[in-house]
Description:
Chain B: It comes from Marinactinospora thermotolerans DSM 45154. Chain B: This is N-methylhydantoinase A/acetone carboxylase, beta subunit. The complex is a heterodimer. In chain A, about 35% of the residues lie in helices and about 25% in strands. By secondary structure, chain A is α+β, with helices and mostly antiparallel strands. Chain A has 2 domains: about 1-205, CV3147-like fold; about 220-360, Beta Barrel (CV3147-like). In chain A, the strands form 4 sheets. Chain A has a 7-stranded antiparallel beta sheet. In chain A, strands 3, 4, 7, 8, 9 and 10 form a 6-stranded mixed beta sheet that branches. Chain A has a 3-stranded mixed beta sheet with strand order 1-2-5. In chain A, strand 7 (about 150) and strand 8 (about 160) form a beta hairpin. The model of chain A has no long low-confidence stretch (mean pLDDT about 95). Chain B is α/β, with parallel strands linked by helices. Chain B folds into 4 domains: about 5-75 and about 210-255, ATPase, nucleotide binding domain (Nucleotidyltransferase, domain 5), CATH 3.30.420.40; about 85-205, 3-Layer(aba) Sandwich (Rossmann fold); about 315-415 and about 420-435, no CATH class; about 450-520. In chain B, strands 3-2-1-4-9-10 form a 6-stranded mixed beta sheet, sandwiched between helices. In chain B, strands 11, 12, 13, 16, 19 and 20 form a 6-stranded mixed beta sheet that branches. Chain B has a 4-stranded parallel beta sheet with strand order 6-5-7-8, sandwiched between helices. The longest helix of chain B is centred in the last third of the chain and has 22 residues, at about 380-400. Chain B is globular.
Amino acid sequence: MFMDETTLPDYARGAAILGAGGGGSTRVGLLAALQAVEEFGPVEVISVDDLPDDALVLPAAGLGSPDITLEKLGNPEQGVWMRTAMEKELGRPAHALMASEVGGSNALTPIVWAAHTGLPLLDADGMGRAFPEVQMVTMHLKGIPATPTALVDERGHQMIFRDMDARWLERSARAVAVAFGGFACTVDHPFTGAQARDCTIPGSVSRALHIGRVISETTHDRVATVMDRLGGHVLITGKISDVERRTVDGFVRGNVLIDGVGEDRGRLVRVEIQNENLAVLEDGRVLASVPDIMTMLDSQTSDVIFTEELRYGQRVTLVALPSPDVWRTDAGLELVGPRAFGYDFDYTPVEELLAQREGGSA
Amino acid sequence: MTTTDLRIGIDVGGTNTDAVVLGDTQAPIARTKVSTSSDITTGIVTALTEVLSAPGVSAARVGHVMIGTTHATNALLQRRDLQRVAAIRIGAPASTAIRPMFGWPEDLYRKVSAGACIVRGGVELNGEDGAPFDAEAVARFCGEVAGTAEAVAITSVFAPVSAAHEHLAREVVRRELGDIPVTLSHEIGSLGLLERENATILNAALGRVATQIVQAIDEALSAHDLAHAVPFFAQNDGTLMTLESTERTPVLTIGSGPANSLRGAAYLTGEANALVADVGGTSTDVGALTLTFPRESAFGVEVGGVRTNFRMPDLVSIAIGGGTIVQAGEDGAPQVGPRSVGYELSRRGLVFGGDVTTLSDAAVLDGRASMGDTDVPDSLRPLLRAALEEADRQVAEAIDRIKVTRGDLPLIAVGGGSVLIPDTLPGVTEVIRPEHYDVANAIGAAIGTVSGQVDRIYPVGSAAGGRAKAIEAARQSAVENAVSSGADPKAVEIVEIDEIPLSYLREPAIRLRVKAAGPLSKV
């Protein structure tokens, strides 16, 4: 599989949906990726099954304030610098890059880096969606050490972090990103081909591309058809009737009310937000929660509405896609379940919650 | 000496050029509607001739002439009369991943681009140098584009925080290329490098069009002994800018049409917070007034296929207008629009003896309007009734979409087709139909409000003196900007403050957007 000017727009669309409202807009990242493949040719996407056991894979992402990336569009050389720094640190050549986070803008910049380094991109990621913190990756869950980690800025400044666990890395790397001017690029949790199948979510890139393609191909009754084909669920179709949003410790927090329209008239759901959409509540009951992927789509265009774009009056369709299985385990939920985000309830898969609701109302 | 107590407002639309004369009284002293000419001057001259010949109006008493025109918008849409622009981005090494004009529509790119470069420089979010400015690279690039470039657009990283490098680059360009027109991005847009750069390049491309517009106005004024009157242009926020500003930043006239209608609606009714439906021949724009100004959209808009970060009036547009064609669909349900007979309504509509079924025919049948003198055939009545219901439903939905809070608001109906709007609508306390509703846009231009805006990032840490100090500084700059644009210092008010906290920074910082506005100083 290749990423080129025909596949990238669909991939970006799918990545936006997997952002679960966060992860940052994919618009600028898509432009950068399109220019990179125009200059260097298509980026090859390889399966975890194609990795030799000793192959070194570098998971890469951007880290820092999205406000900065409004002006700093990035420097493609950062990919090259990160690769060189990690190869020097580990004493062996890299085999492939991987997007640490397939949701939102972090799905696209690794394409730019792959094009510039000449490395293929692994068809996998560490989240299967977007999450706000460095340690919320499957590599951490599966015991892959967070370090060595390379952090580079656009000037070529580099920091190597050694012998640090993921939570210390989250604190330190963020502090350095601020010192670098608010934003930096990072490779962390490097792993090998032998570890790849267990420590990543295989097929994430294909999944994002598939989601985007299904949306592009569907013209009639779009959202419902798309969810049918993707095994997802439409939670409610309505109108945003209230948006409450504030920034706490660098994270966007708040909640949004959706008033049902059409068949959903009379229903009112609340979406809880911390960068991403974390939980959906109705009549005091949970309708869906992390790690399931809840995304708001424009009812007319099916475009993703990111949390920073929410406003009163928008016509939205709230959809939920099931989380990757790895997050539905006890250990996974400890890291990214509702309680990890401060909620006082246990996780139930969205499909079960919906079945209960239908059973209850019948 | 004669007192100059009159103002003329002119709105040059796609179909009609409207003009009004306003004095000290609320109602216009004179008004007219003429066809827009392809050369703009003729339409303006004709409109001026008509209003100046009205009783009580003399050219000597006219102090200001305000013009709203879609000329620059059309030039961009039709890729007409555009200049070739050399684009300089001061953004290496931070912003090299996407080159200037990447992703533009091919035809526009070919018309406009005289080359682009990315040189070292730009500042950090806190205003410190991110990278030293590379003057030599700018000089080299000037050598490459000398002879082909007709204008230069300069954009540097975080220019809304500090434009120092943009000023340095302009000096180099002046030295190398002489007095070629130069647009600096911090004068055009706010945060968002790509969108601001796009808008800056479009502005530079519009230089020739701007000169044409300004000359046309000068000629029209001289031809009517109005050379003493001070001309102003309407911009996208519903306020005015001077001729000099228009020549420098013509791209800001884009979007002035709907802004003028909204401002006119506020003026004619005295309502400060209301919804406005501007119904034309082909479409209806529904917008909202906040403190008599158009509420602006939260996101940047596309102009001619290029994304910018201009704040346009927030509008919901639907294909419902006086000339909208009604047909029976396959299932018998009415199909309303989007096609329209437009300005041919008075020839082709059923009530005018034509053979096209339109929404105006439906409005006459329902008793909302009286026009024409031909009866609608009985066989078409059920279709027309159903079509009007559908139109009402679409208007109600547009109104619901434009509201940003719960609660009902009055709706002001303006524009030539506003008879289509029913007297009661869900979510609306009352429908207000002001006199002179059909020239609301020209009245909006004539009100004569000027504004000053500030959109920048302020540190609010303890060293910087905190949030209150930052807000005060922003308020003062906005007021100063308004006064330097011609506002009466005694009557300037802050009309909008928008505060956005920024995340993950060493020192806490906020982005402040503040707008001040006030009436023109007496000349």
